[in-house]
Design goal:
With about 230 residues, the protein is α/β, with parallel strands linked by helices. It has helices at about 45-50, 85-95, 115-120, 140-150, 165-180; strands spanning about 10, 25, 30, 35, 60-65, 75-80, 100-105, 125-130, 135, 160-165, 180-185, 200-205, 210, 220. It folds into 2 domains: about 10-65, no CATH class; about 75-225, 3-Layer(aba) Sandwich (Rossmann fold), CATH 3.40.50.80. It is built from 5 helices and 14 strands. The chain starts with 7 loop residues before the first strand and ends in a 6-residue tail after the last strand. The structure holds flavin-adenine dinucleotide and FE2/S2 (inorganic) cluster (FES). FE2/S2 (inorganic) cluster (FES) binds next to loops.
């Protein structure tokens, strides 16, 4: 099945039963040979992935989940990424032909990835880092707010897309709610099965608990109970 931006794969890191559970990784890039993911070393699974060689094989399930709905021709996407969250929105930016603005924040400049590629796509990019080593010092959501304050575009033409740490998603949702902009956010959760069976990944929404792996990972921000 052809993957859609915002979908993900469950990847079995290592051999045998250690670790038992597959790890979730967003579709990063489609290639002629298959697809790529981009990952950050976090714990055992990602450390094992780093040790794999080109000729090794991996068990992979996917593509899974819903992905980002595309904007209408009248809408201009404002895409907010935090750290490794860029992996999820990158294929959206690649596939979307129209104008789009990227707001990309990380702890420091060495955690800002794919900048040349993003610029090569002709995107207007705003960068911020916590330590000020690249772009504006501080939160990318503040940069987004400043942009919206100074923009002369009718705000109803914007649509937000975001992927990153939970506090950033919560802050983006607040911006969206206060300004009346629709926002689609990709939620993260610990996943065991990735297939909707174990209920390990649920998030609380205004219409009950929903599975990030099945009804998500992309939700309208107004749906989430923070
Ligand atoms: C939809 C989605 C897309 C993602 N895309 C990316 C990406 O593109 N790049 C990236 O770097 N990261 C991504 N992540 C995060 C990534 O899945 C985790 O960083 C990764 O699982 C870490 O694995 P680890 O073994 O290195 O870390 P560890 O912290 O050792 O293990 C984390 C994993 O342990 C399991 N686990 C831990 N606690 C529980 C629990 N309470 N219940 C059930 N299972 C548990 C889960 O499988 C969890 O994923 C994504 C996550 C989601 C949900
Ligand atoms: S990970 Fe099992 S239901 Fe989502």
């Amino acid at each position: 099945m052809e993957p859609f931006p915002g979908q993900f794969y469950m990847v079995k890191a290592g051999r045998g039963n250690d670790p038992l559970l597959r790890r979730a990784f967003s579709l990063f890039r489609r290639t002629s040979e298959g697809f790529q993911v981009m990952y950050r070393i976090k714990g055992r699974g990602t450390s094992l992935l780093r040790e794999m060689k080109t000729e090794d094989t991996l068990e992979v399930l996917g593509p899974l989940g819903n992905g980002y709905p595309f904007p209408s021709d009248e809408q201009t996407p404002l895409v907010v990424a935090g750290g490794i969250g860029i992996a999820s929105v990158f294929p959206f930016l690649h596939a979307h032909q129209g104008r789009a603005f990227v707001f990309y924040g990380a702890r420091s400049g060495d955690e800002i990835f794919m900048l040349d590629e993003l610029r090569g796509m002709g995107r207007e990019i705003y960068i911020s880092t916590d330590d000020g080593s690249l772009g504006t010092k501080g939160s990318i959501v503040d940069v987004l707010n400043n942009y919206l304050d100074s923009s002369r575009t009718d705000i109803s033409r914007f649509i937000l897309y975001a992927c990153g740490p939970h506090p950033m998603l919560k802050a983006v949702s607040k911006v969206a709610a206060s300004r009346g902009i629709t926002a689609y956010i990709s939620m993260e959760a610990n996943m065991a099965c990735g297939l909707g069976a174990c209920l390990g990944c649920v998030v609380k929404t205004k219409t009950g608990y929903k599975r990030v792996c099945k009804e998500g990972p992309v939700f309208k921000s107004e749906e989430i109970v923070w």
